[in-house]
Amino acid sequence: MSFNRRQFLTSAAAVSAASLLSFEGASAADPIAVASLLDLSGGLDIYGKPMIDAMTLAVEEANAAGGLLGRQIKLINYDTQSSMQLYTQFAQQAALKDKVAVAMGGITSASREVIRPVFDRFKTLYFYNTQYEGGVCDRDQFETGVTPAQTVEKLVPFAMKKWGKKVYVVAADYNYGQITSQWVKKYTLENGGSVSAIEFFPLDVTNFSSTIAKIQAAKPDFVWSALVGGAHISFYRQWAAAGMNKSIPMASTTFGVGNEQIVLSPSECNGMLVCYNYFESVKNAANTAFLAAFHKRFGADYPNVTELAMGSYQGFKLWAEAVKKAQSVDRMKVIEALETGISIDAPSGKVTIDPPTHHCILDVHIAEVKDKKFNLLEDFAQQKPSDTAAVCNLIKNPTDNQQYVIKI
Q1: Residues 236, 389: Cα–Cα separation, whole Å
Q2: Closest residue by Cα to residue 32 from 65, 67, 58
Q3: Surface-to-core class of residue 99, CB atoms within 10 Å of its CB (0-12 exposed, 13-18 middle, 19+ buried)
Q4: pLDDT value at position 28?
Q5: Which of 22, 23, 125, 296 could covalently link to 102 via disulfide, CB atoms 3.0 to 4.6 Å apart?
Q6: What is the architecture, at CATH level 2, of domain 29-146+281-363+381-403?
Q7: What was the pLDDT predicted at 408?
Q8: CA of 342: how far to CAs of 76, 271, 296, 315, in Å?
Q9: Distance between CA 217 and CA 293 in Å, rounded?
Q10: SS3 of 321, please?
């Protein structure tokens, strides 16, 4: 049998097409890889472990419902161990070796800012599911956590009305604490109050005796805490041991996201005010179903589902909805789907992507710590990320890629 040139080319093309179809068929059967970069160990594991549990449940629920686009989802957990070096290393591994469709992770803003450039460079979609100081503007990234305009702006006037107008701020010494303390100052001044002092502490500090003495001397109406991590729990213990919690109350936008209210005794933290998107006591059908499923999976004695855990759960759900809408896991197609304003009825309430900022519109609640639980005091429906919206519009400026920082 002989072939002329035209017959050979036609035959080769047919073989190539068949091979391609065969490859695509195999590829379509492969799991969709999703990365989780969180601390299972290290100084911030009090935050990371519940976040990983919530992500695990979200993935298992999706797989039980048939997966996405007919494919199962493979969750790859990288234990970043509260190490910036490991965050960078695992971000590269997720993008280049494991070729994940989306990466979800980072706890501190510092960890976010070391992995964000990696994912930008290697064109990997990234979800940051943690409450933070606001201002990040990056088309490859989506933020599901609350920002100061959604929490600090609500809690400052509430606390001032309840306790007085003079505040003393203690905060973790990195992006979140530094920038959030400026938002506290801004909203305090706007509501006719004053800030006695702002003090910053590295994440490994455990001795706060000198600061407690300074606060005693300053005599503020209340203390604002933006402390972070296991080491900083020492502040609350030392504060109570000095009897200060009986004379000067406290508000915080970090307390409880690591279940500090369970680690501490009621006498050490009762009466503190906090403000978040999610509490277990939020009443709606989605939350009832979620808590039943969560406790079935992780045990009826699971201590408390945190704000950060819910952020992780909701982040995955938003991405999954966008994949369904895009009918693809392609990064740009999913981004464009998210930018239509994807919305879900989540356990915390309605959560909607704000297209210009890639942040979320969501409900927030002020609550009081009482006997290891949170009692809801006031609700604020569908709060927009107005702080970030004031400086970021990725629809008009899709190439913008920076973090804007408040200046007072």
Answers
A1: 34
A2: 67
A3: exposed
A4: 61
A5: 125
A6: 3-Layer(aba) Sandwich (3.40)
A7: 66
A8: 25, 37, 29, 11
A9: 49
A10: helix
- Residue pair 394/177 in contact by the 8 Å Cβ criterion: no
Whole-angstrom Cα distance, residue 7 to residue 33?
41
Q: Identify the CA nearest to 32 among candidates 99, 129, 115.
A: 99
Are 208 and 250 in contact by the 8 Å Cβ rule? The answer is no
Using DSSP bridges, classify how beta strands 166-172 and 194-201 pair: parallel, antiparallel or unpaired: parallel
DSSP states along 87-144: HHHHHHIIIIIS--SEEEE-SSHHHHHHHHHHHHHTT-EEEE-S-----EEETTEEE-
Nearest-5° angle of CA 384, CA 153, CA 225? 125
Give the helix/strand (H/E) hosting 195: strand 194-201
Q: How far apart are CA 335 and CA 358, in angstroms?
A: 9
Residue labelled with tokens 């997966």:
67
- Between CA 132 and CA 357 the distance in angstroms is 14
The helix (H) or strand (E) run that includes residue 194 is: strand 194-201
Distance CA 261, CA 8 (A): 74
Give pLDDT < 70 ranges for the chain.
1-28, 408
Per-residue pLDDT at 13: 39
Where do the domains of the chain lie?
Answer: 29-146+281-363+381-403, 152-252
Angle, vertex CA 57, rays to CA 56 and CA 61, nearest 5 = 120
CB atoms within 10 A of CB 210: 9
CATH architecture of 152-252: 3-Layer(aba) Sandwich (3.40)
- Surface-to-core class of residue 406, CB atoms within 10 Å of its CB (0-12 exposed, 13-18 middle, 19+ buried): middle
- Give me the pLDDT at residue 333, please: 98
Spatial strand order of the sheet with 125-128 comes to: 73-79, 32-38, 102-105, 125-128, 141-143
Give me the pLDDT at residue 16, please: 37
